[in-house]
Amino acid sequence: MDTRAPATSAPQADTRTDIETPSHPPGVRARPGLRAGVWGATGATGGEVLRQCVADPRIGEIVAFTRRPLKDDAQLQEQVRVVHVADFLDVTPHREDLRSLDVVYWCLGVSQLAEPKADRYRVITRDYAMAVAKVLHEDHREITFHFVSGTGAARNGLSPVMWGRVKGEAEKALAGVGLHRLVVWRPTFIHSVAKREKPTHGDRLAEVLHFRAIPLLTNSTVDIAQGMLHTTFVPDDRRDRTYGPWDIGRLGRAYRKAAQNDQLNGQQDTQDNQDKREP
Question: C-alpha 222: how far from its chain's center?
């Protein structure tokens, strides 16, 4: 018994008949439920979102939009359909793949340390997301769009750091598209629970200083991913919602608590059924 049933305003699996549902390649198995698209699936946060989507039975089809191949994981290969994107600024070749989605988890991004040039950082942070959001708005007005930003993002442009101004620009631009529902996530330092391919200096520092034990100094990729899923199925009524680092921890815990209750309820249902069969 699923106590995490979607509220009335939660995204529902799309039953429209005018959508050409993309075919699944051999070996990829679709399940009934919401259709989720993950961008940035080869990164730390996006990879965790992908794993959590696979583990959540309410997510049916899972599509990873990526340039690079996913990690060699049998479970991911079985349940995730990969769409290779050549140009993130022109996603029109993938219009049908986007139209089939109910929810998008945007985790694509880059550190300012890796891309210090403002123009290029703006393209990756703002323009890539906007290219997808505009197509979604044109073709799918009921979409929920989750966007990973960061603590310190300033929509008014009043930030002392380049990344804060650009992330604020991205949030403001996305809010102006007119998406059915925009959910912005502003984590502080992101601690990757699964090891990154290339650990950052921040990862090493977090391990030494145990930052992950202090909620306002770090957010784990698991909390971010589970918080996203929790608010997908238990949303509030606001069309433009922003969650900070404390919210992320709280929502991650709420997701795990609901999952634990579901497991206990399922065990109780099984026991009740067994009792009914006994003479």
Answer: 11
Give the pLDDT confidence of 178-207 residue by residue, as tens digits: 999 999 999 988 888 876 666 666 666 666
List the domain boundaries for the chain. Answer: 34-271
Confidence class of residue 50 from pLDDT cuts 50, 70 and 90?
very high
Q: Does domain 34-271 have CATH number 3.40.50.720?
A: yes
Contacts of 225 (CB under 8 A, 6+ apart): 45, 48, 49, 51, 52
Q: 152: alpha, beta or left, given left = phi > 0 and alpha = psi -120 to 50?
A: left
- Measured distance CA(51)–CA(80) in Å, rounded: 10
- Supply the pTM of this predicted model: 0.82
Indicate the residue type of 230.
H
CA 12, CA 109: separation in Å to the nearest integer? 28
- Unique residue bearing structure tokens 């073709």: 139
Q: How far is CA 106 from CA 25, 74, 228, 268, 279, in A?
A: 23, 23, 10, 37, 54
